[in-house]
Design a protein that fits this description.
Nucleotidyltransferase, domain 5; 5-stranded mixed sheet; two-stranded antiparallel sheet
Amino acid sequence: MGLSPLLEGLNQQSFIWPSPKYRPRIKKSPSPTWKTFLRNHLQDLVALDFFTVPTVTYKVLFVFLILAHERRRVAHFNVTEHPTAAWTAQQVVEAFPWEEVPRYLLRDRDRIYGAALRQRVKHMGIKEVLITPRSPWQNPYVERLIGSIRRECLDHVSLLHERHLRHILTTYFAYYHRWRTHLSLAMDCPEPRPALPADRGRVIVVPEVGGLQHHYERQVA
């Protein structure tokens, strides 16, 4: 007996559809991920953030950072005891002359970034990109930089006051730009430097950041 009589006798209301887990899933083309966005806009994207540092006199200082994603370069930093939206907006102006304005500015949703900052950034022709609330992983490069500053520098220093902190950070960033290597830069530094051949002399150790860090270079005989 063929299948046609059986199929004709089936009542549509009594037909049981297969369970969803047995149905073939239709694959949709995935939308671009956040990591893809960061990678595609490396040349046009900068990120900013604050972090706090206590002093030996129990004052809390705020460090403001602007990081250029392309070469992991610290475009600007400053220290204050009383950050305001107007002060933060002025830091952005000082960081970028008109001919060097980035296309995108990545930041979190902290209240310190008030109307003064938003208006100033808009007038400079910069588009703000806000991360999701309570999602610091969406601003990974500047968060990684802050962690490096703490682990490699500030965790080993007792800070006296604002001027002391500014001096320590200035020396650390000089080391960071010229000598600190990055996996994402193929083990190069934010300021590219050539690798010296072995015939240029023996390797010497040079202290940096008051001896907290060191760099290695060949000394010409």
